[in-house]
Each structure stands twice: as structure tokens, then as C-alpha cells.
Amino acid sequence: MKRVLVFFCVAFVMAAAAFADGQVRLGLEVAKDFDYRPDFAAVTNSFSSPGSYMAGLFWEVIFDHLGLAGNYMVSYDSTDAAILPDFTANLGWQGDLLLTFHLFGGGAFLDPFAEMGVGCAGSVNLGAVNYTELGIQALGIYPTFNLGLAIDLSGFLVGAKVGYRLSSIDIPVTGFQTLSAVAPFQVTLFGGVALGGH
Q: What is the pTM of this model?
């Protein structure tokens, strides 16, 4: 485990040096899906109460105003065996690959940005298999568009973004139906580090 951590630390420092004219970002994010266009009250209530969240990692490399970003998030929901005798647990995942545009460029204190790209999402039933032989409940790809604001505190990054995803599209080679793999709206809070560009 120590070797893996050392490898990633060295790789991150080398990437920061290689992209000295740009900026490299790494961090954590948590997201909440909405089936409707949420207002501020709905978002604050959602994040302040228990519920189903997606959580994971993100990365981004920025040159001037343009960048390339990606993320991977998972969620886990289960039902209490005392409530349902047939215990079930669902694991969901989402990964996006995004082109980004930063209005003031990477490294600006206030960083309004836009993202567009494609993602893949799905969920699998880990308990009782009720949907397919493999327990897959949903699997699909989708186009996505996000607007957000990051605050760069001399290398420490915090921010939020709102995303709109069009309906999921079946992945042809799998033969699985999407079964609403994603909700149309997603609000994400994130934090991390930003190297270079200051």
C-alpha cells in the first residue's frame, strides 16, 4: 500500500511540474440526483438530510481556459433484513469524461466554468436477483452538460456544479435496458487540491 501511495504522490508532483503553465486538479465530490429541476431550498434540504448520495473522485487538467476532466462516483443502498425478509443491496456507479471551459482560466480565485461530455451509469442488485440473471438493474450512456463555480484558495479548491443529463441510451453490445440509469438533474459539491496556474 505504501508503494502505491508513493507512486501516486510522485506522479502527481511530476504532473504538476510538467503542466506548470496549466493546472492539475484532484479531489473528492458528493452528488445528489433530482428527477425535477431543484431550487436552492430543495438542494439544501437534500444535502442536510439522510439519503442516497453518489460519492467519489475527480480529476482535471486545465490549459488557459480549456480543460479535460473526469470523475467516478458510487452509491450504496440497502434494505434492512428485518423489514424485508429478502435482503437486497444496490450498488450504483457513474463515470464522466468532460471537456471544460473556465471563463477566467485555471488558477483564478473565482472560477465559473462549463462542462460538456459523455458519461456511463448503472446499478447492480447485490442481494436478491430480481431483474436479470446478473442482477443488473440499469446500464446506459448519456450526454451531460454542467455549470459550476469553483473557489481556488491558493491551491485548495472548493465548489459546486449543477448538471443536466439527457435520457440514458442503451449500450448496444450489452443487451441490457437502461431502466432510467440516471436522473435528469444532478447537484455536486466538491473539494480538493489545485497545483499550478497560480
A: 0.75
